[in-house]
Design goal:
The complex is a heterodimer of chains A (547) and B (456). Chain A has 547 residues and is mainly α. Chain A has helices at residues 11-26, 40-53, 72-82, 94-97, 103-112, 114-119, 130-139, 141-144, 157-169, 180-194, 202-221, 225-242, 245-261, 265-282, 285-301, 305-322, 325-341, 345-362, 365-381, 385-402, 405-421, 425-441, 445-461, 465-481, 485-499, 504-521, 526-546; strands spanning 31-36, 58-62, 88-92, 123-128, 147-152. In chain A, helix 15 (285-301) runs parallel beside helix 17 (325-341) and helix 17 runs antiparallel to helix 18 (345-362). With 456 residues, chain B is α/β, with parallel strands linked by helices.
Chain lengths: 547, 456
């Protein structure tokens, strides 16, 4: 047995490794060993060393993320059953499962299955990063208390450098195109790395803020808005502490986007305004343009179209001034969408065409796809459904070509809507199903909700009320889960309509959710919808009076 | 004492001899009676006496608690043995097997008791009135399950709720398995089940007591004395601090004490240690017993408790040849003191030390094992706990704060008894730099060396 393995490890970690090896050699029957190593690179090195130097077999298991999620115990038990006699089971990936969903729930499950783990009658070696170790100790004390040994390894510079390289190899935008499993793995990677960046040194704080920002964006693309908001707020706090105005602006902007996705538009506007001020203060025109565009989107969502147009125009001016063609295309697209909302479809088409030309001119595939999708929607408004479908198909092709899964899902949803408008409901359902699959694959909860809601509408058109109710119900649950207020209102309203005859009281309750939200944001439909609910309530009272 | 067989003489062999996960069965030669260092109370005998002396027509109902690894399950086994010997009909309910300890409410506990009563009666060949059991089973089914679910109970049991359920089980057992299955499955089914039961709570209690009464009467006819229910594992329920600072533990045992006490039989519930100093619990339940830690000092926190230290030393000495494994008895004494009287921590430190050396365990190796544990405990200390921990360490008394529940739950604070209850922080907490800095700064003491635990 080599005495000095892994020369990169510091003396303390070498001693820990020696102790771990002794313990694994001596373990008889069930034993639980917990090893703390914050990076996968380091874990791999140590596991390779154990495999080479232990006098007993070592079976590696990386817990996987499934749908429905399978608890660690089931996965471990399956591997333990097949493992050769005397084998140690090394379990990694707890961190891939734990940072998402509800970590508390996961840890409680761990706690509860404690007795079952014993019955495996094998030594288990669990790999955890620091943050998970602390969570386990606090929330799964009955489980953690059974450990027979707990070893701490410090990540050496080489492994740290390799991990940092991995962390920055994927850009913030590319992150959203990753598969669900890849996103989970990335979260674990970044979260473990975060544990390495502790200390008051401004450089460390700055690196920490950058990792926190990436984590926020990842959770954001997964539709896990509350977690995203938490991370963005951490970014903001550090940025203010170290006086990094640029990071502060980015944190504020992202917070605005997150609140906007939750339907809390007023809050979002507040953040955007702050971000805009910072951009102007530091004189960053690009940042300023982003802030203006976001404000335009927010006012557009509130139905304040003239204000939205004003912001988009300002953004457009800046982009033309600084020569950002890509941004210019996006602004034109946004302007088109506002005019489309105003019913000025011809004008919208004109803007979309300009955006399309710019995108093709500069070879911006994403911009091109966006413009094509918008043109599809505009022609759909005009009732030229065949033409709309043609545009959607072109957009779909581009998304498939560049691997934009989220965009692909949106295109399929649009195609579904188009065929639904043509009365080809079966075909529409087929598209919605495909979109749903993609949304689930990439963990896009918001998209999943929209697809389920669309399926509900399609089955409602077919008169299959029970099925429609089921889909709307699922869509409603997702909207609630991710705090998507606008869609919560829409699905509750549609669901209410389906319940109206059989259970008017329930219908009124559901539809009221939509009314409450519309009133809160001052939506123009609010009072008309309220009157509709009032009618149902009046009918209920009248029916009661007759009894 | 006479060693039954050769004791381990090397660290390699000693490593396997201090596995804290294996509870001792009564009669094991390695068993050391710790009562004389835990306040001289023989709790199982005491509780059994209370049950025996409870006058006809009234019931003994009490709570029992203790830290993880304090020997609760062993003591409960012992209690059951004593009560069986005395002729009582004891029913042991292991809640861990039936419920989801991540989320337990009083209704679940009552349902688990009903289920185990029926199972135990069948195992012990006590024939509960078929008419009654059918009526109760039907009541549960009608209350909790939908028409389809009732019809499907036969078909779905295996896949949905089944961990090896026997299809030949009587209807009542199947219904109860379905009901507990719904509770255990979590999510909306659980919430819905509880809501349905709660709406008809008075009837539920009536039905439960009909079952209890029937089992009691039939047990009496078979020559047993009264019925005693021992509900174990409830102390393992997860701790959640609710809005307003109340804990889920307190909601279960304080707010719903009436329902938990409403059964017409003797009952002993194990409860989480976090509740020990809940001021409302005493009012809700008469007796709350605690299995304290073995004392390593007297309640001044200074004077060594020789008896406690000797007994802890003995626990290790019955498992290995101390003279061969340690360089000197003093080295083991260091670990004994650092354990704070938590047997599991003592075993764990010996284990750590065995893994840190090929040779005998010497002073530095022991110190390393101690530091390891200190680092472990330090992770559990939140900054906002420091003030309270310092107060406990200073006064060795209860500061009367509900905030203590988490500190108890995570074993940062340990209870001791000598006539009176007192408490102190775990020695590993006292040695943690985070705590030491705070404590000594506060008292204006010179800062000592971290991890030095031999000061007492």
């Amino acid at each position: 047995m080599s005495r000095v393995p892994l020369p990169d490890l510091d003396a303390e970690s070498q001693a820990e490794l020696a102790a771990l090896k002794r313990a694994l050699r001596l373990a008889d029957g069930f034993a639980l060993y917990v090893a703390r190593a914050n990076t996968l690179v380091l874990r791999r090195q140590i596991i390779a060393d154990l495999r080479a130097n232990l006098p007993r077999p070592l079976v590696e298991l990386t817990l996987s993320w499934g749908e429905p999620p399978e608890m660690p115990y089931e996965q471990i038990a399956r591997v333990a059953e097949r493992a050769p006699a005397g084998a140690v089971i090394s379990v990694d990936g707890l961190d891939v499962l734990a940072p998402s969903r509800d970590p508390d729930w996961f840890l409680r499950q761990l706690n509860w299955r404690r007795a079952a783990y014993r019955r495996l009658a094998r030594p288990l070696l669990l790999w955890v990063p620091e943050y998970l170790l602390r969570l386990m100790m606090q929330h799964a004390p009955d489980f953690f208390d059974w450990h027979s040994g707990f070893y701490e390894f410090t990540t050496p510079e080489t492994a740290l450098g390799e991990t940092v390289r991995q962390a920055y190899a994927v850009g913030d935008v590319e992150q959203s195109d990753l598969s669900l499993a890849q996103k989970r793995e990335r979260i674990a990677l970044l979260r473990g790395l975060l544990d390495e960046y502790v200390g008051a040194d401004p450089q460390i704080r700055s690196a920490r803020a950058s990792l926190l920002g990436k984590l926020g964006i990842l959770h954001h693309t997964l539709g896990e808005i509350p977690q995203a908001i938490e991370y963005y707020k951490d970014v903001l706090a550090i940025a203010r502490e170290i006086g990094d105005r640029r990071a502060e602006g980015a944190g504020l902007g992202n917070l605005g986007l997150a609140y906007s996705d939750r339907g809390e538009v007023a809050q979002a506007i507040d953040y955007y305004q702050q971000a805009l001020e910072i951009a102007r203060e530091i004189g960053d025109r690009g940042y300023e343009e982003t802030g203006l565009g976001n404000l335009g989107n927010a006012y557009s969502a509130l139905g304040e179209t003239s204000r939205a147009i004003d912001y988009y125009q300002q953004a457009l001016e800046i982009d033309q001034e600084i020569g950002d063609r890509r941004g210019e295309g996006a602004d034109l697209g946004n302007l088109g969408s506002v005019y489309r909302d105003l019913g000025e479809v011809a004008r919208a088409i004109d803007y979309y065409q300009q955006a399309l030309e710019i995108a093709r001119e500069i070879g911006d595939r994403r911009g091109e796809e966006n413009a094509l999708g918008n043109l599809g929607s505009a022609y759909s408004d005009l009732g030229e459904v065949a033409r709309a479908i043609d545009y959607y198909q072109q957009a779909l092709e581009i998304d498939r070509e560049i691997g934009d899964r989220r965009g692909e899902g949106a295109d399929l949803g649009n195609l579904g809507n188009a065929y639904s408008a043509l009365g080809e409901v079966a075909r529409a359902i087929d598209y919605y199903q495909q979109a749903l699959e993609i949304a689930r694959e990439i963990g896009d909860r918001r998209g999943e909700g929209a697809d389920l809601g669309n399926l509900g509408s399609a089955y409602s058109d077919l008169g299959e009320v029970a099925r429609a109710i089921d889909y709307y119900q699922q869509a409603l649950e997702i909207a609630r889960e991710i705090g998507d207020r606008p869609n919560e209102g829409i699905w509750a309203w549609n669901l209410g309509l389906l319940h109206e005859d059989a259970d008017p009281a329930r219908a009124a309750g559901l539809m009221q959710i939509c009314v409450d939200y519309e009133r809160e944001i001052g939506h123009p439909d609010a009072e008309a919808d309220a009157a509709r609910v009032g009618e149902i309530r009046a009918r209920i009272r009248a029916a009661r009076g007759q009894d | 004492m006479d060693a039954p067989q050769a004791l381990p003489r090397t660290v390699d062999l000693a490593y396997g001899a201090v596995d804290p996960d294996v509870p001792l069965e009564p009669g094991d030669l390695r068993y050391v009676d710790l009562n004389s260092a835990r306040g001289d109370e023989d709790l199982p005998a005491l509780i059994a006496r209370r049950v025996r002396f409870t006058s006809e027509g009234s019931w003994h109902r009490q709570l029992l608690t203790g830290h993880r690894g304090s020997g609760k399950s062993t003591e409960l086994k012992c209690l059951q043995g004593l009560l069986d010997q005395a002729g009582f009909f004891t029913v042991y309910v292991d809640v861990e097997e039936t419920l989801d300890l991540a989320d337990v409410e009083y209704l679940d506990v009552l349902v688990a008791i009903a289920r185990t009563l029926d199972e135990t009666a069948r195992v012990r060949k006590l024939r509960i009135s078929p008419k009654l059991i059918e009526a109760i089973g039907e009541w549960f089914a009608e209350t909790v399950l939908t028409k389809e679910e009732r019809r499907d109970v036969n078909l779905t049991l295996k896949t949905e709720y089944g961990v090896g359920l026997n299809v030949d089980m009587p209807l009542f057992a199947r219904m109860m398995a379905a009901v507990t299955g719904q509770i255990r499955s979590g999510g909306s089914a659980r919430v819905e089940t509880r809501r349905k039961l709660e709406q008809r709570l008075p009837v539920l209690m009536e039905r439960l007591n009909e079952l209890v009464d029937d089992v009691s009467v039939r047990a009496l006819k078979k020559g047993y004395k009264r019925l005693v229910v021992i509900a174990d594992s409830l102390e393992k329920m997860n701790l959640t601090v609710l809005e307003g600072g109340q804990t889920n533990h307190s909601v279960l045992f304080v707010e719903h004490a009436e329902q938990l006490k409403a059964l017409d039989c003797h009952v002993v519930y194990t409860v989480p240690i976090s509740l020990l100093y809940d001021r409302n619990l005493g009012a809700a339940f008469g007796d709350v017993d605690v299995i304290p830690m073995v004392k390593i000092t007297e309640d001044d926190g200074q004077t060594p408790c020789a008896r406690g230290r000797d007994l802890l030393f003995e626990i290790v000495a019955r498992r290995m040849d101390v003279d061969a494994v340690f360089d000197s008895p003093e080295t083991l004494c260091k670990l004994v003191v650092a354990s704070g009287g938590v047997v599991r921590d003592l075993m764990r430190m010996v284990r750590f030390a065995c893994a840190y050396t090929d040779d005998r365990i010497d002073g530095p190796t022991a110190q390393r094992a101690i530091l390891k544990m200190v680092r472990e405990y330090e992770r559990l200390i939140h900054r906002e706990d420091l003030e309270l921990l310092a107060q406990v360490h200073r006064e060795r008394r209860l500061p009367g704060s509900t905030h203590l529940s988490r500190l108890m739950y995570n074993r940062l604070v340990l209870p001791y008894v000598n006539g009176d209850r007192w408490m102190d922080v775990h020695p590993a907490v006292a040695a943690a730099p985070l705590f030491r800095d705070h404590f000594q700064l506060e008292r204006g003491w010179p800062v000592g060396q971290a991890g030095d635990l031999s000061g007492t």
